[in-house]
Specification:
heterodimer, A: about 250 residues, mainly alpha, B: alpha/beta, 23 strands, about 35% helix, globular
Chain lengths: ~250, ~700
């Protein structure tokens, strides 16, 4: 797998970022994301009814929205290149696969970050209406950003496995869903007759929801940070392996 | 050209598998690493205070804490779900800090199950929820672990139902529970008082109940009370906390006091089992030795609740009814000798008069009923009591009859936290003017100075002794008053040798003392806060004020390590929409005044209508009457409509604000993004055209 060269990564990063803002897709994605998350917050999240100056009604929807929206960004990371034949071109450039994988990933992650940052008016709103705990809100934004990276990494891997963007999308959604909901009572209830309590707890610990809950309340637990970090690294490694497979075909 | 890779690089499948395995292992490994967390909340909601951590670390025994929580309660009332998860989380944090000495469990007691029976047995309060009438539980139970002794009194403790209004004291309540379970012995409280707080000792002989003060009867459930009237008794009983109520000092200010007449006989009265009664033939004056013993007790990190009074109502009342008879108790009590070195004083010539908080009494004359506040009887409500101190936070209302004021000098070394504060509608009153209570006279001359007085405070810190020369040495005064003869000298030595066996003298605190000082002693007497009746030997009490609770809370609070005492209320984390609340309040004020005006008009109209129809009234001409009636009816309908409109307007402002916010957030930013996209697109197209 080669080592990483920061300058190569930056090259790819810049190329990708430019690509985002010259296509209508990016803007559509941002608009859809913003409208959806705000609507959910006010209409599903009982924002006013709760009468609490926090953003719980906002953040609680992030995992579920990410499951659907982030694979949409991820699917074009690799599948498109494979399909369009541009991947061979990419891989003959003087950089390692890992550089390419990381560069693309970081660009997609930064793009998601921008979309997240554009929800700032909500943060301002809540400060206007009361005195929220801004430390907790900041922690939640960081956690959400980290979580988005996790979903992206999974999507990036799936996307490198197939040339069909739609298949990449569907499978990514499915896997992201499993990772998200493995903590919920639904899945735990389904598995627990078959496996012991320890396994159920362990599987619950591997879910996005579990690890995001604490962060949402304002606590950055090392375990949660390591969870997301290790997840991203693991799936990027997988992505690199998958792309290399194509390279050597 | 792709290099023919002869590297033994594993196939991509293995790499993927490897990555997944490493991921799982890393997370497994990290799973047990608790405690490495960064609490970014502003109130540090998820971090235990230092005091709580220390209590947990230094626990001598193991305890088991169980939370009985019905999930159904959380599903029906979301506020409880939030609180319950907070409780569970805090239990987890406490367990982590205890290094294995605290074990926790969470149980959802199903209706009609064995677990539910157990919950009820352990004191959990079930609350019926919903139609089925099934009860839900939300309580905590704790007991020392493993010794098979399930005696609830000994360390076992319970919170039958966790009230959300006590949420800010969750950390304190849980830590306190754990502390008590780990230190199961009942704390010893030594009571020093000139009054018959344990009841009339002679009553037993007359076959009547002794009637101890009910506040002490309540305290007895939690503490081992004993009477202390001498330094020897203090040394022997070795109490954990001192309760000093209106002590009588040898040199009194003002009134001449006689010593109590008959010797006390140490027999508990009927209806007051178990309370230690005074000894035989003892004098209940607080002599030098006792004062010194108390001083040294406090210097050793002692805890005390002290009730002093510049004007003791009951004693003054006796003087009224039986003038000239020597009083059994002093009218005023003070401990200046101890308090002054701390920088504290309670002036004995001042009674605080608070008009805003004065108890409403009948100030009318013969046959008249005029309700007026009696400023000398201060009745503080919740707002006048410290909300962050666990002792006063949940108290609703108390009565302090003729309290003094606590003055803190500028250079006081101690930390003074007010517990009960008067309003600003106060002035100093002369105690003697209260001899014949006359509310109207006081109100006539009332001139408030706007300076809120401290009526009760918590005093803590390191202090110096009030006896810099060491223990007092009794000087036996010989009959001709000359202490210099040899006889006197040997008598002196003898007395000194027979004196109390004081521990070594210390001049400075070795540990911070913690004292709750109250400038009134009347408040503990039954008549001011509780009705107690005796039904065939059974005491039935109905408190109507919180005075007794204040005493028990105070003693409870003082009983505990200093770490426990450092725990304060934590913010609950509830942050409502203040701006919306403001709008609502403003709208309500506006609404209320309009509503009241309209209601008055409505009432007037209705009265006038009734008058019209009144057969006894002067008859008006038929036609005139009809038009007037029609007019009134029309106005009535109008007024009612106006009222409904005002009602609707109440919500209008808030709803407008909410809609605006929704609009800005849902459509605002996206619109800007779309605009930016269009502009950017146009810009690029122009670039392309140019190029």
């Amino acid at each position: 797998m080669g080592f990483l060269s920061p300058s190569s990564v930056m090259t790819i990063f810049k190329r990708e970022m430019a690509g985002y803002f010259t296509t209508p897709l990016a803007y559509i994605f941002i608009v859809v994301f913003l409208v959806a998350i705000s609507s959910f917050t006010f209409y599903l999240g009982a924002f006013f009814d709760r009468d609490q100056a926090d953003l719980q009604s906002f953040f609680q929807f992030h995992p579920w929205l990410y499951i659907v929206l982030i694979p949409a960004i991820a699917m074009r990371l690799w599948a498109e290149e494979i399909n369009g034949g541009t991947i061979e071109l990419l891989l003959t450039l003087p950089l390692t696969t890992a550089d390419a994988v990381l560069g693309k990933f970081l660009a997609a992650w930064a793009f998601t970050g921008i979309a997240l940052a554009l929800t700032a008016p909500l943060w301002i709103t809540v400060n206007f209406l009361g005195t929220p705990d801004n430390g907790a809100i900041l922690a939640s934004y960081l956690g959400s950003f980290l979580m988005a990276g996790g979903y992206l990494a999974i999507g990036s891997f799936i996307s490198a496995l197939t040339r069909n963007q739609v298949i990449a999308f569907v499978i990514s959604v499915a896997i992201c869903f499993v990772f998200t909901a493995s903590g919920s009572t639904l899945i735990a209830g389904a598995i627990s007759p078959f496996v012991g309590d320890g396994i159920v707890t362990f599987i619950r610990g591997l879910s996005f929801l579990e690890n995001f809950q604490d962060i949402m309340r304002g606590v950055l637990d090392m375990r949660d940070v390591i969870y997301f970090g290790s997840l991203i690294i693991a799936f990027l490694v997988c992505t690199t392996a998958a792309v290399n497979r194509i390279k050597h075909q | 050209m792709a290099k023919i890779s002869k590297k033994r690089a594993p196939s991509w499948g293995f790499q993927v598998l490897g990555a997944v395995v490493v991921f799982v292992l890393v997370n497994l490994g990290v799973a047990s690493l608790s405690g490495l967390r960064l609490d970014l909340t502003e109130d540090r909601l998820f971090t235990l205070s230092e005091g709580a951590k220390r209590v947990l670390e230094t626990m001598p025994n193991s305890v088991q804490m169980t939370l009985y929580y019905s999930k159904r309660l959380g599903e029906e009332v979301p506020a409880f779900a939030t609180y319950a998860s907070r409780v569970e989380e805090m239990m987890g944090e406490l367990a982590d800090a205890s290094d294995g000495k605290l074990s926790i469990a969470v149980i959802d007691p199903e209706p009609f199950s064995v677990l539910e029976d157990e919950a009820v047995e352990r004191g959990m309060q079930g609350v019926p929820l919903g139609d089925a009438g099934d009860e839900v539980y939300f309580g905590l139970y704790i007991e020392p672990k493993g010794d098979g002794n399930s005696d609830v009194d000994l360390g076992g403790g319970a919170i039958p139902f966790l009230q959300t209004d006590r949420a800010s004291f969750l950390e304190y309540d849980l830590t306190k529970m754990i502390w008590r379970a780990a230190h199961p012995e009942k704390a010893k409280v030594g009571v020093v008082s000139s009054k018959e707080v344990f009841g009339d000792p002679m009553a037993g002989m007359r076959g009547q109940p002794a009637n101890p003060w009910y506040a002490l009867v309540q305290a007895q459930d939690f503490f081992d009370l004993s009477y202390i009237n001498s330094a020897e008794a203090l040394i022997e009983k070795d109490p954990d906390i001192l309760l000093i109520i209106h002590p009588k000092l040898p040199a009194e200010v003002g009134e001449s006091v006689g010593e109590s007449g008959a010797p006390r006989i140490g027999a508990p009265g009927i209806g007051a089992p178990g309370i230690g009664a005074p000894g035989i033939g003892e004098n209940d004056v607080m002599d030098e030795n006792l004062l010194y013993a108390i001083d040294q007790f406090l210097l050793r990190g002692g805890r005390a609740m002290i009730f002093l009074d510049p004007w003791n109502e009951t004693t003054a009342g006796i003087r009224n009814t039986a003038p000239g008879v020597p009083l059994p108790y002093p009218i005023a009590s003070n401990l200046d000798r101890l308090l002054n070195p701390w920088g504290i004083t309670i002036p004995s010539d001042v009674v605080v008069g608070d008009r805003a908080l004065g108890r409403l009494v009948n100030a009318g004359g013969e046959g008249q009923l005029i309700s007026a506040p009696y400023p000398a009887w201060v009745q503080p409500k919740a707002e006048a009591m410290a909300q962050e101190d666990s002792v006063t936070a949940v108290l609703q209302e108390m009565l302090l009859p003729s309290p003094g004021k606590i003055l803190v000098s500028g250079d006081a070394q101690v930390t003074v936290s007010p517990l009960i504060t008067s309003s600003m509608d106060v002035m100093d009153l002369d105690p003697e003017s209260l001899q014949v209570p006359d509310p109207r006279k006081i109100l006539d001359i009332f001139e408030p100075d706007g300076d809120a007085r401290i009526l009760a405070a918590r005093i803590s810190g390191l202090v110096s002794t009030a006896f810099p020369d060491g223990p007092p040495v009794d000087i036996a005064v010989n009959p001709n008053g000359d202490p210099d003869t040899e006889e006197a000298a040997s008598a002196q030595t003898q007395t000194a040798q027979q004196g109390p066996a004081f521990p070594p003298h210390i001049a400075e605190s070795t540990d911070a003392m913690n004292v709750i000082l109250v400038a009134d002693a009347d408040m503990l007497e039954d008549r001011y806060w509780v009705t107690v009746q005796n039904f065939f030997g059974q005491t039935v009490a109905q408190p109507f004020l919180d005075n007794g609770t204040f005493l028990v809370n105070g003693l409870e609070n003082l009983n505990g390590s200093s770490d426990l005492l450092s725990l304060r209320a934590r913010r609950t984390g509830s942050r409502p929409f203040e701006r919306i609340d403001e709008i609502r309040r403003a709208a309500e004020t506006e609404f209320r005044s309009e509503e009241q005006a309209l209601q008055r008009r409505l009432a007037e109209l209705e009265a006038q209508m009734a008058a019209l129809e009144d057969p006894n009234a002067a008859p008006t001409a038929g036609e005139e009457a009809e038009t007037t009636a029609a007019q009134y009816t029309a106005e009535l309908v109008q007024t009612r409509q106006a009222l409904r409109q005002v009602n609707a307007n109440l919500r209008r402002d808030i709803e407008t604000l909410e809609s605006q916010i929704r609009l800005v957030n849902i459509l605002g930013t996206p619109s800007i993004v779309v605009l930016a996209a269009i502009l950017f697109g146009l810009y690029r197209r122009r670039q392309k055209r140019v190029a």
